[in-house]
Amino acid sequence: MPSRILVVDDEMDLEQLVRQKFRRAIRDGEFHFFFAHSGVEALETLAREKDIDVVLTDINMPEMDGLTLLSKLTSHDGVLKAVVVSAYGDMDNIRTAMNRGAFDFVTKPINLDDFETTILKALREADAIKSANRVRDELLAIQNELNVATDIQLSMLPQVFPVFPERTEIDVHARMIAAKEVGGDFYDFFPVDEARIGIVVGDVSGKGVPAALLMAICRTLIRGSAINGARPHECMAAVNNLISGDVVPGMFVTVFYGVLNTKEGTLEYCCAGHFAPYIVSDQGVRMLESVGGLVVGAVPGWEYQSATVQLMPGDALFEFSDGVTEANSATDSDYGEARLEECLKGVHSTRAEEIVDRVITAVQEFSRGVPQADDITCLAVRYMGK
Fold first, then answer.
1. Do 196 and 260 contact (CB within 8 A), yes or no?
2. Across-strand partners of 253?
3. What is residue 103's DSSP assignment?
4. CB 170 within 8 A of CB 262
5. How far apart are CA 28 and CA 91, in angstroms?
6. CA angle 298-319-216, nearest 5°?
7. CATH code (residue 241)
8. pTM greater than the 0.90 cutoff
9. Helix (H) or strand (E) holding 32
10. In angstroms, rounded to a whole number, what is the distance separating the alpha carbons of residues 39 and 250?
11. Are residues 368 and 251 in the same domain?
12. Which of 171, 179, 312, 325 is a plausible cystine mate for 382, CB 3.0–4.6 Å?
């Protein structure tokens, strides 16, 4: 696209000088000049031609002078650059023009070489602004897409609680706070059959869009395997075999998958490289044995194991991602398991939502003033009994 320049001057001979000076650039399509002989005519041209890059205007003109024209110029995102022309001794008007936003000036009698240098400098400035605006627009488009991706990801996670309003024997709640617009953490609750509920917390290595894509795949595969009746270790093995070799090298998923029998209070679970959950009871806070195996997606054919634990009415299960324990403070220390256990000591009789909120609040207060470095996910299930 040629650079588009509007020259405004009531002296007719300037048009001929400009056309002669830039004849080669005009012929080669590098420059496209427009000419106006008054400020009014210039405004009409600008209204008709929306993408003028540079306006070069004389200050002293009848009908509408250059200073008035300058005050009426509207620049889209700062692209339009104005250069004023006046007599060498007319520095007061030139200074006024510069204060009103003129980019540069040339003096009469016009030196055409200086005129060309000034025009080229103004065009470079306009091009730089156009380039910056394009980058900004691209970033805004990416941000809009990320906002949509955030909405899609959140829609995949249970957001409305209670998840199972007809089941009075359990109280469940969870939250995920992504470190970026989209994250790699996920949680899920779903019925396996009339008596059993599947419970999942996962953490994909890395953050951002790649992690979110793998998170969506892994969540879907876990649901599919679980609903087909696979036990936790069988489910992890199936998912591992499906994604191993297909993920980007270095990416993997840590997963806790448990199946809670709401009639009997038994929890069968598998920790595939993920933290074992805590049990909060009237006896205190204890972490379950970490039984399971390797992270999902690293080694095809890996054999996983499950363990079973008995929950008593009133017991609460609390599971989390490493964004909780590895959250940093201003002194660069981690929140850690000791602080988490201390936080959980006071939640034995509280609702699942209050457990989640209490832990997240404690972590955020601990990390006050420090940018969140990792996704934070907390899940709580209180077993109420029959």
1. yes
2. 204, 296
3. -
4. yes
5. 36
6. 50
7. 3.60.40.10
8. no
9. strand 31-36
10. 64
11. yes
12. 171
